[in-house]
From TrEMBL:
Gene3D superfamilies given in the database record: P-loop containing nucleotide triphosphate hydrolases
UniProt lineage: Bacteria, Bacillati, Bacillota, Bacilli, Bacillales
Domain of life: Bacteria
Keyword ATP-binding: yes
Classification via InterPro entries: AAA+_ATPase (IPR003593), ABC_transporter-like_ATP-bd (IPR003439), ABC_transporter-like_CS (IPR017871), P-loop_NTPase (IPR027417)
ABC transporter domain segment(s): 1-233
Record's protein name: ABC transporter domain-containing protein
Length: 304
């Protein structure tokens, strides 16, 4: 991975019963990193530590290559956008326009034209207090307000929660456009696998507070496949990354591999026919990965 927007080294936080960490993780600049994991796996805590809303018990975090033992300096904090899983009550009594005025004072790069354009596209209601908006309407305001200062780093904690499918599609399109500058980095925590599929360059998988692994999404999609091959189940012994084998019918064996490219090459070189292949869905890959089947070259618990 290239230079990091944020880097965590040995970061740990005890949350009531659960230990989050130790986590070693780099968010490479210029990419979308999808953060995924079961409920309570520590996604929000990790994001909160990146904003110093929660302070780690151990370890170090750096922002754009710098460490800040106390607060994140304002000029740095202003380069970081955040959509929280839960709406902040501070803006409850403001309209979208009024809240934007406050935000514009805080963020020197605030782009009011872009903000207005996003409110229009998302059909955010005007002149009503944010607390009177529906969950989805408010979420759309929050996404627009997070994008308007064109932050260098955008931390999104379940941003699509409450969005209708049309607004969801718009959000995906806007985030893609936002990334076109090549300067920005997004960390996107989500339970929606399709969001990862459409947006993420890398997938970070958390499990019980630990980093289960980091992988390039395209590499997962290209390599985790189901194959039907002429022959018997014994074949699998000579092939890389085989995690399931089943003799389907006489002379046809079905396998799942995490290293399809190498597997196909070896089969081809051995003159063995691949009868059919199926790319695994990302949710299938993630659940196999969670069960302990690791992407090629990854050791358990190693994320970086
Ligand atoms: N304020 C808090 N005080 C104590 N424990 C907390 C607090 N917030 C979260 N936790 C605990 O920390 C663990 C991780 O929670 P966190 O909200 O980071 O998970 P998550 O992966 O974001 O979950 P979800 O997908 O449900 O949003 C959970 O076991 C949770 O109970």
């Amino acid at each position: 991975m290239e230079q990091a927007a944020i880097e965590l080294k040995g970061v740990e936080k005890k949350m009531r019963q659960k230990l989050i960490g130790p986590i070693n993780l780099k968010l490479p600049k210029g990419y979308v990193i999808g953060l995924i994991g079961e409920n309570g796996s520590g996604k929000s805590t990790l994001i909160h530590m990146m904003l110093k809303i929660v302070h780690p018990d151990r370890g170090a975090i750096s922002w754009f290559g710098e460490n800040y033992p106390h607060e994140i300096p304002q000029p740095v904090r202003r380069q970081i956008g955040f959509v929280s899983e839960k709406s902040s009550s501070e803006e409850n009594n403001l309209t979208a326009e009024e809240a934007a005025e406050f935000r514009a004072e805080w963020y020197p790069e605030w782009d009011q034209t872009y903000f207005e354009e996003l409110l229009g596209k998302f059909k955010v209601p005007r002149n009503i207090k944010l607390k009177m908006m529906s969950k989805g309407e408010r979420r759309k305001y929050e996404i627009a307000a997070a994008l308007a200062p064109r932050p260098k780093l955008l931390l999104l904690d379940e941003p699509s929660s409450g969005l209708d499918p049309f607004a969801w599609k718009l959000m995906i399109d806007e985030l893609r456009q936002f990334m076109e500058s090549g300067e920005a980095t997004i960390l996107l925590s989500t339970h929606i696998v399709d969001e990862i599929k459409r947006l993420a360059d890398y997938v970070v998988l958390l499990h019980h507070g630990k980093l289960h692994g980091v992988a390039e999404k395209d590499s997962l999609m290209d390599n985790w496949k189901e194959l039907w091959v002429s022959g018997s189940a014994d074949l699998a012994g000579d092939l890389p990354g085989i995690i399931q084998v089943q003799q389907e019918i006489q002379g046809v064996v079905r396998m799942i591999t995490t290293e399809c490219m190498r597997t196909e090459q070896i089969l081809h070189d051995s003159g063995i026919s691949v009868l059919k292949t199926r790319s695994l869905e990302l949710d299938e890959i993630l659940s196999l990965w969670l069960k302990g089947h690791l992407p090629a070259g990854m050791q358990s618990g190693k994320g970086d």
